[in-house]
Description:
It holds the Pfam family Peptidase_S9. The protein is an alpha/beta fold.
Amino acid sequence: MFKYFPTNYVWNIAINLALEMGAKIGEIDEMCQPVLDASRKGDDAGTVDFMRSWVEMADKLSDLAQEDLVQGRELSAGSKLARASTYYLTAERLQSSGFAERLPLYQKFLAAFQRSILLSGENCERLEIPYEGTHLSALYVRAEGVKGPAPVLVQVNGLDSTKEMVYRIAPAQALARRGVSSLILDQPGTGEALRLQGLTAVVDSERWASKVMDFLETRKDMDSKRIGLMGVSLGGYYAPRAVAFEPRFALGAVWGANHNWGEVQLRRLRNEGDRPVPHYWEHVQWVWGKQNMEEFMELIPQIHLNGILDRIRVPFLVTHGADDRQIPLDYAHQTYAGLVNSPDRELKIFTRREGGSQHSSLDNSSNAGDFIADWVTERLGGRTHTQGKAVAQQH
Length: 395
């Protein structure tokens, strides 16, 4: 994992995620150099300084994009706005939930992201899925070269990610080239659902996953018999739980197993283990809709996969990073062991040799993402070679 700050694991995670989303190393250096002193105050205390520096760069890129547009250079403007949106989001994610500037910054990020997609002509469409009197927002990436209904992999966030992050990092484009569509969701507790609608996380993830399936079954461009579900990070709890209780999913996968998230919280409480975001305890209470630590601690014993995975009777892929500092590797083995009735289960540990050995491959998503895309494609139906004749390298 790239470590710009010697003592700030949380800030380094943010940088690695930004790089995976398309950040440029020169811009990273320009944003981070001024906050080296602030980093020594700690992950939480220095986050406002971090935000100011990253927003300054994002604003500059937005201004440069506007200059491109004056000259009719929409593709160049879209490229700059894509990075600006990444920097806005990175700055927003590190702030406390009650920070006054957080919501306006998130809205600024959304606007920049949507504009970048439009100007760049990317294969990405915003959808809204009916849910409990409101909606869940999603990004839809269409399969390439498919006539008629295409298979779909639904992808869901973790504790602190958003659909735009998953779109930039996870294998949506790789799947599209393989003939598989992607639906990337801000489920309750994440992204727009949390920030704009106040929809907090729920233990029974099938509650929203079933509504997603209802919606997908109405789409003529999606094959309702070939829909899979993948979860990233805390999605490693949400996805198996949903597949266990929603039998319409044709397969399941996790990018980072999270077999017993409640147990992980107890460990963090004891030793303040490696956290994904600053202001961590405030953040988890916000995500789950709890008013204080007492309420949160009453909830967490429910957040585990013990005793339910034997309900899964479809193919299932469990992946984990060998060097994951947030979620113990043993949880990947526990999830895999519980899939006793899956007709096609696989456990894949990403090593340093392959890359992607950190939590949910935040250090290098490319090879891990390709592996997941191939595994899903081989089971949902698609192609793992070019449209022409597959070519094998001769040695």
